Amino acid sequence: MGQNAEWYERAKAVIPGGVSSPVRAFGAVGGTPIFFEKGQGASITDAEGRNFTDFVMSWGPLILGHAHPRIVEAVQKASALGTSFGAPCKDEVRLAELVHALHPAAEKVRFVSSGTEAVMSAVRLARGATGRKRILKFTGCYHGHSDALLVAAGSGLVTFGKPSSAGVPQEFTGLTSLLPLDDDEALETFFDQYGSECALALIEPVPANNGLLLQRPAFLQKLRTLTKKHGTLLLFDEVISGFRLGQGGASSHYGITPDLVTFGKIIGGGLPVGAFAGRAELMDLLAPTGPVYQAGTLSGNPVAMAAGLACLETLLETHAWESLEQKGQLLESAFNERCKPLNPPVDLIRIGSLFWLAPKGPPPRAAEALPDNLPKIYGQLFHALLEQGYYIAPSAFEIGFISTAHNSDDCLGLVEAWARFFESS
Ligand SMILES: *Cc1c(COP(=O)(O)O)cnc(C)c1O
User: Which residue among 62, 80, 379, 394 is the one 20 to 30 A from 158 at the CA level?
Assistant: First the structure.
């Protein structure tokens, strides 16, 4: 038995399914989960000493690559001064100031420890602010695993074909309304009927947890217009797109300012951080200034704040978003040149440094448009790429991430590995 298999057996004895998050179990692609030992730049090494070029990048946080020197130094320095105070620290103020300066919706910021927590808290805030109960989400958008939002979410839930989760009473999701993405008419009908009782509409402006379902800007604009008209707050869940699509995330990209925004992943530079932000008068409704309770023992943790600050500062100082766009363009043009002539069953969908192998055809914009057979060849593709030294997401519904540590050869190599698979299958 190899090292990965041995560790997996040990893990399964004491951890449900052997993993701390379901997609890691390789259920959708088969085979033994990989235990990673170290990462450097765009490269990761597993327990058996095999090296891979990594296009998962911890699902987004590692926009600067693994073990970036600035982040490692920041973590070392901060941790030597104490790993937690349960009290305010300077770096949390600095990071909040930076988020405020970069994102158009972030007048005030509150830090938490995960994206799940950020969205869950923002939903409470929206209900507290409006005195309304109903919330609106879109099929295929993932907003973390809090009860009210586990309705037709993406990520692992798609893989398992479950619309929801056991353990979530119907009563808990009864106030969560669900609409398809990309459907103007459904949106108008909903707001005509329920607009006045809806506290919050939340959406991934760049839906990236159920493939990459890029939205028509006009649909997002309509959502902004209708929410404003009906006094419903709008939340952009930018846990993936925040600081990824540029300094102002999807909000700046589309020129639409939501009332509330959530962050995660990149904002912690690889450490567990989430945040929610929004207009000052809304955010001031949070305890201790307002009646909406929200708290966290490790929120604003000094080590995590130092890592997040180092990450955002480095992105800004190195003009990272320009070079990330160039790498994305290179990947796309290489796919068109090398793979397209092979007539593969997939198309490449890309925005900035995010990419996804979509089913062939017009770019899907709604979860309902995705064919059932999508995962069929994906398991083979996944293992063929591992063989060639490329680690991509172990699920057809998860997207790929390019970091500043990836060079042209990494991107061209991935395309070549895809091409070899398409040639042989
Ligand atoms: C990852 C993600 C979350 C959940 O964040 P966690 O840190 O995994 O809890 C929420 N929303 C979106 C859009 C995400 O991509």
Answer: 62
- Residue 115 lies in domain: 69-317
Q: d(Cα 137, Cα 180) in Å, to the nearest integer?
A: 9
pTM of the model: 0.96
DSSP 216: P
- Which CATH number covers residue 10? 3.90.1150.10
For the record, the structure tokens of 193 come out as 């009927």
Closest Cα to residue 325, out of 420, 215, 246?
A: 246
| pLDDT at residue 216 in the model | 98
Q: Is 237 among the residues known to form the active site?
A: yes
Task: Say whether 194 is catalytic.
Answer: no
> Do 176 and 301 share a structural domain?
yes
Query: Which position among 54, 137, 254, 265 bears the catalytic label?
Result: 265
Domain count, the chain: 2
CATH number, domain with residue 309: 3.40.640.10
| Options 142, 254, 390, 391, the catalytic residue | 142
